[in-house]
């Protein structure tokens, strides 16, 4: 049974609890309800938040949802979808801002890729653009494929690195199937990227495949 916000005592509402006790005191459902701000007819923001978390199965899966996907859901729409996606993106940028990551190994690439791709249900190709000391400058999604196939556009990847003044870069993509083993196509794409990077005068730092709980280096 839906519980409207007006039926909740003022001191127990998410906004008032956050102001009185801090954000740490709120559940994921309550924090998400604050981002949504309001629900829809007969459904409160708390109920809508609970539905989203239940449907996606986890907060990380919800964080990977595309804005158009969220906007198409009943009770969400473009404004709420944009707010949710923006909130998760701010969180990612705040993580980056604490201490710029340095990519010293495939494990470093996998750690960043897990943060960006965890929970995604379609394959995405992520470029990690670095400066001359392998310090991460920016992460860019350059393509998104079907559930079991992604495209690795060599020219677009190199353009993304050069456009952001990168001197080195790594590549990552996810396997929604849960199997991190590289396919023959993954290995061929990696060799193509490595050769193109050499021609462009860029250092290629490697390619990893991630799943929600595992990863594997292709190169």
Low-pLDDT ranges: none
Dominant shape: elongated
Ends apart, CA distance between termini: 53 Å
Assembly state: single chain
Supply the CATH architecture of the largest domain.
3-Layer(aba) Sandwich
Write a structural description.
The chain has 219 residues and is of the alpha+beta class. The chain folds into 2 domains: 5-96, 5' to 3' exonuclease, C-terminal subdomain (DNA polymerase, domain 1, Orthogonal Bundle); 100-217, Cytidine Deaminase, domain 2 (3-Layer(aba) Sandwich). It has helices at residues 14-21, 28-36, 45-56, 59-63, 67-71, 77-98, 106-117, 154-163, 184-200, and strands at residues 124-130, 136-144, 168-174, 203-210, 215-217. It has a 5-stranded mixed beta sheet. The longest helix is centred in the middle third of the chain and has 22 residues, at 77-98. It is elongated and about 65 Å long.
Blueprint (SSEs and pairs):
Elements: H1 14-21, H2 28-36, H3 45-56, H4 59-63, H5 67-71, H6 77-98, H7 106-117, E1 124-130, E2 136-144, H8 154-163, E3 168-174, H9 184-200, E4 203-210, E5 215-217
Parallel strand pairs: 3-4
Antiparallel strand pairs: 1-2, 1-3, 4-5
Helix pairs in contact: 2-3, 8-9
How would you summarize what this structure contains?
α2 packs across α3 (45-56) and α8 packs across α9 (184-200). This protein has 219 residues and is of the alpha+beta class.
